[in-house]
From TrEMBL, chain A:
Reported function: Part of the binding-protein-dependent transport system for D-xylose. Probably responsible for the translocation of the substrate across the membrane.
Subcellular location(s) of the protein: Cell membrane
Region described as Disordered: spans on this chain: 1-20
Pfam family, one: BPD_transp_2
Keyword Cell inner membrane found: yes
Protein name stated in the entry: Xylose transport system permease protein XylH
Organism: Actinomadura parmotrematis
Key words, A-Z: Cell inner membrane, Cell membrane, Membrane, Sugar transport, Transmembrane, Transmembrane helix, Transport
Membrane topology type: Multi-pass membrane protein
Annotated TM spans: 26-49, 61-79, 86-104, 110-133, 140-157, 192-213, 220-239, 245-265, 277-307, 323-342
Main localisation: membrane
TrEMBL record, chain B:
Taxonomic classification: Bacteria, Bacillati, Actinomycetota, Actinomycetes, Streptosporangiales
Source taxon at top rank: Bacteria
Start and end residues of each Periplasmic binding protein domain: 46-289
Protein name per the record: Sugar ABC transporter substrate-binding protein
Location of the protein in the cell: Cell envelope
Coiled coil: none
Stated family: Belongs to the bacterial solute-binding protein 2 family.
PANTHER family named in the record: ABC TRANSPORTER PERIPLASMIC-BINDING PROTEIN YPHF, D-XYLOSE-BINDING PERIPLASMIC PROTEIN
Pfam family, one: Peripla_BP_4
């Protein structure tokens, strides 16, 4: 377990600080393996794909990474806290659908739909957390159940309300333009269009990193993931922390849902299924342990970057698309194996 | 005329340099003529569809596209993703790759709107195929090759009534695909009897089978099953057998397994939209546009279907279907 799992607060002059050299501290970071993997992969695709090296392509890669990465922030924190959320993929669709249906059916300013969606999505996260805490069932089972329920409700409600399988377009409604500029615009940087989600992604990662490393709740997250009983014994509010983590995933799902809604104006009720695994993969590549208690938000972000690079790099490299998922799987295996090797070396030398 | 002292040596050096550089003219000459005759430089055309992995229908589309690419000296880049947002990202990668033309399906037109505007800004011509005929011109595509899904649905509804079905189900294998919805709606319009939609997960065949079986068990009066894709028709035949139902199975689209089943009478008819034509014509249209400034269709969708295939016409198509192009 990482050293951070045991110390709720570090008094000044703590013996654990200062002893390790900066290099050793760098080697001890959970995201180091992923970082090396990302650099190797970047160099590899730059070498094999001409189109990959252009600034415009890099912006496309960053955009793809950000749509995984925003979710990977919440999912990484939850995983450090020792839990899974399998409903994360469809919750994005639910969130977008709620905003679209509420705004359109009640003919409201879309911002009202955005607010209602935030409340509903956070409530869903709260429900996931509450079910987990109250029943004591593994979060895998609890969120698997909510995953199916949300997937069904997405289609059922949309079909019942609109008569179609997709929500009606909100493109011409009040507030669409301003909401789009916040959630789904792009910024011109030196002639390259960079999606605003890239900046939001970096902001989410920065806030999550600060939360994890500089605040008391951050220590609680490591503690409940590392050893929940021990954490409870020393006074960490385990139930509250876990519920808050599920709500954190919901917050990310809401944000991505709003991005999808304001990018495309309509929402397909069947989408999002299967994406939850991509988010978990991002977190795992980034060095989060499946068992909890170890990992970082930056790692999840690098994981998402690796995933986005692989995802688009294969296309830029013009490889046979029939093999797409094979390449994807192989890349992921290599990245995680590299991650493991680096961590083992560090543990042995430390 | 007096020459400089070293004229001979200079002339020799110039000649040597010219030969060393290959002595080629970058433009004009016999080579350029030969190039023009063969259809100009090699074009790079990207085709981005909403296909799931390993779908026979899209394999036929791809074969058509490859055939045209082979004839037209085109490098074809094929990619696909069933999720609207991800398909849009793939179109963006084609723009990044500076493709000379993009072929795209518009099953979820709203998701493609922004990225097609970016393609237009990059001056990359776009041709749409398959579903989305009504959105095609609005989104800036120069041509559309496909089947009008409502017209095809209406043809299927009439044919379904003709074979004597009264209470049928329309099996939708891809949620949120407006093309599939219009097929069922079109069929409902001309069918006359009762037609209800059944949603199944097209990428999971056992689930498709069990869903149809359950539906046929639950309602014994169902006497017709209309599937919307070729691979689902044999599954529906099996499901009907399992459920002990006498429902007559008919389908949209065609492949080589279906030809045999059409000949044996297990499947009553198939509404073919000739996917090979869609892939072929789309690539060829972009090549024509690039090499001769032509546009096909006059701004209207070019219909590749519906062509109804029954027991009688199935035999003549068997050879093509076995090749995987029909």
């Amino acid at each position: 377990m990482a050293g951070t799992a045991t110390a709720p607060a570090r008094p000044p002059g703590d013996e654990r600080l200062g002893r390790r050299s900066p290099l050793r501290r760098l080697l001890g970071r959970p995201e180091l393996g992923a970082l090396i993997g990302a650099i190797v992969l970047f160099a590899f695709f730059s070498a094999v794909a001409d189109a990959f090296r252009q600034a415009g392509s890099f912006s496309t890669v960053l955009y793809a990474s950000s749509t995984f990465g925003i979710m990977a922030v919440g999912v990484s924190l939850l995983m450090i806290g020792g839990e899974f959320d399998l409903s994360a993929g469809v919750m994005v669709t639910t969130s977008a659908l709620v905003a679209a249906l509420v705004s359109y059916q009640l003919t409201l300013n879309v911002w009202a739909g955005v607010a209602v969606s935030l409340a509903v999505t956070l409530a869903l996260g709260f429900l996931n957390g509450l079910l987990y805490v109250r029943t004591g069932l593994p979060s895998f089972i609890v969120t698997l159940a909510t995953f199916f329920m949300l997937a069904g409700a997405n289609l059922g409600v949309t079909k019942a309300v609109t008569g179609n399988v997709a929500s009606d377009s909100v493109r011409d409604m009040d507030g669409f333009a301003s909401a789009r500029s916040l959630f789904a615009s792009s910024v011109d940087i030196g002639g390259v269009n960079v999606s605003v989600t890239v900046f939001w992604w970096l902001a989410f990662v920065a806030v999550a990193t600060w939360l994890l490393l500089r605040t008391r709740p951050g220590n609680w997250i490591f503690a409940v993931g590392g050893a929940a009983d021990a954490a409870r014994a020393v006074g960490v509010p385990v139930a509250r922390t876990k519920i808050a983590l599920f709500m954190g995933v919901a917050l990310c799902a809401w944000f991505l849902g709003m991005h999808l809604l304001f990018s495309y104006a309509t929402v397909q009720s069947g989408e999002g299924v299967g994406n939850e695994f991509y988010y978990i993969i991002c977190a795992v590549i980034g060095g989060c342990l499946l068992t909890g208690g170890y990992g970082s938000a930056v790692g999840g972000a690098i994981g998402a970057f690796i995933f986005g690079m692989t995802n688009k790099g294969i296309v830029y490299a013009e490889w046979n698309p029939d093999w797409f998922r094979f390449f994807l799987g192989a890349m992921l295996l290599v990245a995680t194996a590299l991650n493991l090797v680096v961590r083992r070396r560090v543990e042995r030398s430390g | 005329m007096r020459l400089p002292r070293h004229a001979g040596r200079i002339a020799a050096a110039v000649l040597a340099a010219a030969l060393a550089l290959g002595g080629c003219s970058g433009s004009g000459g016999k080579k350029a003529e030969e190039k023009a005759a063969s259809g100009g430089p090699r074009l790079k055309i990207a085709m981005v569809t909403h296909s799931g992995q390993g779908d026979t229908f899209w394999d036929i589309v791809k074969k058509g596209a490859e055939a045209a690419a082979g004839k037209d000296n085109v490098q074809l880049l094929y990619s696909a993703d069933p999720e609207g947002g991800k398909q849009a990202q793939l179109v963006q990668t084609a723009i990044d790759q500076k493709a000379d033309g993009i072929v795209v399906t518009l099953a979820k037109p709203d998701a493609m709107r922004d990225v097609l505007a970016r393609a237009a800004a990059a001056k990359i011509p776009v041709v749409s195929i398959n579903s989305g005929a009504e959105a095609s011109a609005k989104l800036g595509a120069v041509a559309h090759f496909g089947q009008d899904e409502t017209v095809a649905g209406e043809a299927a509804g009439r044919q379904l009534a003709k074979i004597g079905a009264k209470n049928a189900i329309c099996v939708v294998h891809e949620q949120g695909n407006v093309g599939l919805e219009s097929r069922c709606a079109g069929a409902k319009k001309t069918f006359g009897g009762k037609l209800q939609n059944l949603y199944v997960t097209g990428t999971d065949m056992p689930q498709v089978k069990s869903a149809i079986t359950a539906k046929l068990q639950a309602d014994k009066s169902i006497d017709g099953v209309l599937t919307l894709g070729a691979p689902f028709a044999p599954t529906a035949v099996d499901a009907a057998k399992d459920a002990g139902s006498k429902a007559k199975v008919a389908t949209f689209d065609l492949n080589k397994d279906l030809i045999a089943q059409l000949e044996s009478g297990a499947i009553w008819f198939a509404v073919d939209q000739q996917p090979y034509l869609q892939g072929y014509e789309a690539v060829d249209a972009l090549w024509l546009l690039r090499s001769n400034g032509n546009a096909l269709g006059g701004g209207r969708p070019v219909l590749t279907g519906p062509a109804i295939v029954t027991k009688d016409s199935a035999a003549s198509l068997a050879a093509f279907a076995n090749r995987g192009t029909r």
